[in-house]
């Protein structure tokens, strides 16, 4: 991540960008030679500078032209920001309260087939977001 992308983000936020070659892609993908995905802990539990961090996440997603994005520690305010500013992406979230995970995928390159939230019976209100693409 460049220094421009880090502007306004916390030092303990993590981002990873990866690619997959065409040979590794399923035949159901929309004729693209490389699949790019990003995984990022958005540090939503620390409310200070939440929107600048969300802006940095959006900027990185758009600059990298990621096809699939996995987000951790999303909170309602950042989820709303992602939905409003990443209109070329389908945004799915594991919850709408507290903090939760999210999966975003580019509508033009990934075909959405359905999703399911699988609850885990813990005191931390965690769940799994299963997305079929």
UniProtKB/TrEMBL annotation:
It holds the Pfam family Exo_endo_phos. It is found in: Nucleus, PML body. Keywords: DNA damage, DNA repair, Hydrolase, Magnesium, Metal-binding, Nuclease, Nucleus. One of its GO terms (cellular component) is cytoplasm. Residues 38-122 form the Endonuclease/exonuclease/phosphatase domain. Its main location: nucleus. One of its GO terms (biological process) is double-strand break repair. Its cofactor is Mg(2+); Mn(2+). Residues 10-24 have a biased composition (Polar residues). PANTHER family: TRAF AND TNF RECEPTOR-ASSOCIATED PROTEIN, TYROSYL-DNA PHOSPHODIESTERASE 2. This is Tyrosyl-DNA phosphodiesterase 2. It comes from Araneus ventricosus (Orbweaver spider). The lineage of its organism: Eukaryota, Metazoa, Ecdysozoa, Arthropoda, Chelicerata. The gene is TDP2_1.
